[in-house]
Specification:
Strand content: 5-15%
CATH class: Alpha Beta
Distance between the termini: 15 Å
Strand order of the largest sheet: 2-1-3-4-5
Number of strands: 5
Shape: globular
Largest sheet: 5 strands, parallel
Length: 187
Amino acid sequence: MAQRRDVTVFVGSLRKDSFTRKIALALAKQAPASLALEIVEIGNLSFYNQDLEANPPAPWVALRERIKRSDAVLFATPEYNRSVPGVLKNALDIASRPYGSNAWQGKPGAVISVTTGGIGAFGANHHLRQSLVFVDVPVMQQPEAYIGNVTKLLDEKGEVVNDGTRELLSKFANAFAEWIERIAPRK
């Protein structure tokens, strides 16, 4: 079997019992064997401040290096006020700097959005895609993944109980594996 593709996963919710994290973990379980998904924590990142670039904080350096080592990136985001959480936007900013050293550049990406409401965090999903275009992340277009009414889809342990959601996650993960190979084929 070919070496697994390393996918760095970013979860935009810091809450201990985050539904977004639970969906990201469920997606990892549905992923094909060709993908190795790892959640990278972003809650410890200080706010981006260009003045700190002379001696960047260790968490910034680690984030940038981790992204550069990865084959692809996956974003799982809730929706805060029709947009992405600040912690996720901050990670995007940190890893795209300093100018000329964009860690995101060319990394195949995908977005899955999660909400307790009915529209599946559509606003956050699309705002995130706008930023990803600018930092040169080729984002998978189809299938889209908007997970609405998430509280009805998970049991008390965070396991997906809805067959349709499991199928969507599986289809999404398989399409993402194909997207990675198309955008960044193995050498």
